[in-house]
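re: the backbone from monday

yeah here it is again, tokenized this time
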């Protein structure tokens, strides 16, 4: 049975689990609906700022899949490329 709209815990979103949920809750995203309203790009940027050492393409792809309700292995390549760009940008900034 699905939860009421706006109350679907982030850990229960497709591709995500307890570890990802903990990171997302730390950046203010506790429900699937909050992820959807924030957008995966902004959620990833927040997570990169807070947990730079934990960010990778697997996390980003899972985040995209959760937002669009798609298995992480089937995330469109254009979205994966955008995720790589965001991750690389934060890696460059971290070295400065």
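seq for it, each position gets an aa:
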């Amino acid at each position: 049975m699905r939860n009421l709209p706006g109350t679907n815990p982030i850990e229960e979103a497709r591709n995500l689990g307890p570890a990802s949920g903990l990171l997302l809750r730390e950046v203010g995203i506790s429900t699937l609906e909050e992820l959807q309203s924030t957008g995966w790009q902004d959620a990833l940027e927040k997570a990169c700022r807070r947990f730079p050492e934990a960010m990778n393409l697997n996390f980003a792809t899972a985040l995209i899949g959760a937002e669009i309700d798609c298995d992480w292995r089937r995330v469109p390549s254009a979205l994966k490329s955008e995720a790589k760009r965001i991750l690389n940008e934060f890696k460059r900034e971290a070295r400065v």
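The chain has one domain: 10-95. The CA atoms of residues 6 and 24 lie 16 Å apart.
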